[in-house]
């Protein structure tokens, strides 16, 4: 039985798993209920399973039993597990009611990875190498991948992966069932910054007797936009966004301090490093001009996500063979969102793959996007996503013909 036929036979079970997981979304690095449900789905399979010590991760290793010469290749497949602190508004019959939501589709990621696990276990006699399955918490902004790397993810099979793939579903953008790839940079880096402007408080009627931190803070925020347009190449852009601002307690009081937090994103390491250098210099200059002090803190988050060209072309070829060329699109531009699968792709050649789960009755151009409380995902794509991951691994680990 082919991998595709095997997965077709368990499709209903995978959809049930996806909906069970959708009902119990958990946020962050500690996902006990989610971890338990995934472990139940893996029970009885010929896997070497390791649970995270710091976080609720699962690493499962499958040892292929086909004979092979020389060093056995290793493939890594990733599925993230965490949800978002979003109250669901989809009205789905299996909607979450606990105040959290799988608004980014990670419930589908877990279900399709479980499908790939089961298919590859059933075909392990055709694998002349090993597979690492990475079930990861904390992708949504808390760098769960870093914790897994610290705990030895890449060496779980005894040697580092030769290839790595991950699928991410979208609730919009492309028609349902379409896979998307991009050569090279596919997603931006992301870093947080926190700025505190330290002034000297006083009466609102006498700003000359105080050192107002609010005016320089406003100028700093505005100046970030000018920095982007005047100091960076438009063909290697950066995105700076201030999302949190706080100052003062009353309308007629000049506060002691003001603060704002934001993010900056870039599509190359060079631009990322440059914005990290220029922002504090910009804020220091404005602070000095206003006679106040300023502190700048950078919180490094995710690197640029860069797809390997060969591994990405491999995805397009396998999609065309399995599902037809119309089921694959090549993105022209990267997304300015960020992903911690970037850390895996720094260590192994691989590809971050998109898969549209936009419900067919919705227009992909206007459907609610990932992270929306209204985002809906068609779980009929789970079987195809599982098939693609399993086929990519199986083909890379197939015995070499003599």
Automatic annotation (TrEMBL):
GO molecular-function terms, A-Z: metal ion binding; N-acetyldiaminopimelate deacetylase activity
Signal peptide: none
Domain of life: Bacteria
Co-factor requirement: Mn(2+)
Example GO biological process: diaminopimelate biosynthetic process
Entry's cofactor comment: The Mn(2+) ion enhances activity.
Chain coiled-coil ranges: none
Residue ranges occupied by any Peptidase M20 dimerisation domain in the UniProt entry: 192-279
Keywords, alphabetical: Hydrolase, Manganese, Metal-binding
Protein name: Amidohydrolase
Native source species: Arachnia propionica
């Amino acid at each position: 039985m082919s991998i595709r036929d095997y997965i077709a036979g368990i499709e209903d079970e995978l959809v049930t798993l996806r909906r069970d997981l959708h009902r119990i979304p958990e946020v962050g690095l500690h996902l006990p209920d989610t971890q338990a449900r995934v472990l139940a789905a893996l029970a009885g399979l010929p896997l070497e399973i390791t649970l995270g010590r710091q976080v609720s991760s699962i690493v499962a290793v499958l040892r292929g039993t086909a004979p092979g010469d020389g060093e056995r290749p290793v493939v890594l497949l990733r599925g993230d597990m965490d949800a978002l602190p979003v109250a669901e508004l989809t009205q789905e019959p299996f909607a979450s009611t606990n105040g959290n939501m799988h608004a980014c589709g990670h419930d589908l990621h877990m279900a399709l990875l479980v499908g790939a696990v089961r298919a590859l276990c059933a075909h392990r006699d055709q694998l002349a190498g090993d597979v690492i399955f990475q079930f990861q918490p904390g992708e949504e902004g808390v760098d769960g991948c870093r914790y897994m790397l610290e705990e030895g993810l890449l060496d779980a099979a005894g040697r580092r992966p030769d290839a790595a793939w991950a699928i991410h579903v979208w609730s919009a953008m492309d028609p349902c069932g379409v896979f998307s790839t991009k050569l090279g940079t596919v997603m931006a880096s992301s870093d947080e910054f926190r700025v505190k402007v330290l002034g000297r408080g006083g009466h609102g009627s006498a700003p000359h007797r105080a050192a107002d931190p609010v005016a320089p803070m406003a100028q700093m925020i505005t100046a970030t936009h000018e920095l982007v347009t005047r100091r960076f190449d438009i063909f290697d852009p950066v995105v700076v966004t201030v999302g949190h601002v706080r100052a003062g307690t009353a309308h007629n009081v000049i506060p002691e301090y003001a603060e704002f937090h934001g993010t900056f994103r870039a599509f190359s390491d060079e631009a990322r490093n440059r914005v990290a250098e220029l922002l504090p210099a910009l804020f220091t200059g404005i602070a000095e001009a206003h006679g106040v002090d300023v502190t700048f803190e950078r919180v490094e988050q995710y690197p640029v996500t860069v797809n390997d060209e060969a591994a990405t072309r491999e995805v397009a070829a396998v999609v065309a063979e399995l599902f037809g060329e119309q089921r694959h699109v090549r993105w022209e531009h990267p997304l300015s969102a960020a992903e911690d699968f970037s850390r895996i792709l720094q260590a192994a050649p691989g590809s971050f793959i998109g898969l549209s789960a936009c419900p067919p009755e919705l227009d992909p151009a206007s459907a609610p996007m990932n992270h929306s409380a209204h985002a809906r995902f068609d779980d009929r794509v789970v079987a195809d996503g599982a098939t693609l991951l399993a086929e990519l691994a199986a083909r890379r680990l197939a015995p070499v013909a003599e």
